[in-house]
Amino acid sequence: MQRSRLDHYLLDNPSLQRRYKKIKKHVNRLIISGYDITNRCNLRCKGCYFFEGERSSNFNDDRTLDEFDAFFASEVKRGVTMPHFAGAEPAKVPERLALAAKYWNRGVIYTNGTLPIAPDLPFMLHISLWGAEETDARLRGKHAFRSALDNFSRDARAVFIFTINRQNIGEMAEVTDICAQHGTKLSFNHYSPTRWYGSSGTEMPNEIRFRGKGRFSGPDDQLALRLEDLNIIRGHIRELLIRYPDTLIYSSYYNERINSPDVLFNIDSQTGVATNCAILNSAHHREYRTDLTWDDADCCIPNTDCATCRHYVANYSKIMGEFHNHLDSIDQFDRWLEVYETWCKLNIRNWDTLD
Ligand code: SF4
Ligand code: SF4
């Protein structure tokens, strides 16, 4: 029987084979879907995509626990094995999270880290972070980083996700060092503007503008990254990966790809929506809003502009879906595998100690 290129790579390189097999073993049957489980939040962050647009905070949040119970059961039946809980702030509804844990033993909670989350929940915690202490407090209206460190720095489920924006690029090293001193893991996300970015909400219906109050970024308060920022970010991450290998969860290849000056997705010129977004095109992925409805046109990052989307969830998924484009050489395959492994470290509990 003729061997495929992949077979050759794996047979010639036992370490590559072990890493690939581990992924096949633990990730093959993961079916991911996303759930906004509340539209309440205790912060008022500038540039928050949830409150900046009609595809997220505009839905009722009045479902009962019994309705959530039946809904989660139906999602398990539909085949979902890895839920991603977001919102606004999921920690505002601990009873809904506790219910979810009856149905799943894997998943991710996207949280701002300022409120407690039950230690027995079996989900990874991605804790949003907007810069070193002062910048974080200025952009979020509260010392969120400090509270999150107090709450979660010793929690093995936690990864701090520093969203890089124009105002905090110079703080990447300082924040990585703080995380290293606290023994907590860190990764980076790129700030990705919404379609209404910079409008200050004035063109929006009143009820949306009201909910977003204090969260819109005006023209004098820019967070959006410029092309020249991407080069600087790439350089910082290269350095930090060398200095903080035990703290930073990041992929070198992803660093090159995400900081490319190109538009990262193919965009439909009529709709402005990405035609090759792995999340949007996934057969099983649905993004449920707080009223438990969903729409085919929604990704997990509501209101975001596909043309400037550098969000880590979307871009890891995109590269992971490019398996066949990375088989021309063993080096290319190794790079693809490194991105996949990094995703596993971010999304699967205790990845490093699994067989
Ligand atoms: S970005 Fe800030 S305001 Fe928006 S949901 Fe997250 S914590 Fe709340
Ligand atoms: S995740 Fe996909 S659909 Fe959503 S904004 Fe990004 S590119 Fe567009």
UniProtKB/TrEMBL annotation:
Gene3D superfamilies listed in its UniProt record: Aldolase class I
Domain of life: Bacteria
InterPro entries: Aldolase_TIM (IPR013785), Radical_SAM_PqqE_MftC-like (IPR050377), rSAM_sf (IPR058240)
Protein name: Radical SAM superfamily enzyme, MoaA/NifB/PqqE/SkfB family
CDD domains per record: Radical_SAM
